[in-house]
Amino acid sequence: MAAEAGQLELNAFEPVIFYTLFESIETLGHAAQTLTDNCILGITANEKHCKDLVNTSAGIATALCPSIGYAASAALAKESLKTNVPVRTLAITKGYVTEAEADKLLDPYTMTGKRLEKSSCYNYKKAATLGI
What we know:
Elements: H1 14-40, H2 47-56, H3 65-68, H4 70-83, H5 87-93, H6 99-105, H7 108-112, H8 124-129
């Protein structure tokens, strides 16, 4: 509204525009800090639940493709979805892989190339105190 009421390049309302702009930026900054303090800091993953989700996912069957082929992997994934039996269990019971091979092929850390130790995890609390 202040920009609309100004005359050509001589806008007498520019101070009002800039004041409200800076006020909005400051409010947004405080909102981001409040979100960080009250919602983000302290969040931790439920590791057992995450492992269960990965191990019961039918998508993990894609890791078996190089070893047993696409058709067998797809059949295992479909059967896993239909019966709620993990792909790993189906692959072992049907004789596609041994238990040792399943441990190696279906290890999510090996598949993603991410083997993080707890000590190397990013410290969010420390980052927040540094203003990062």
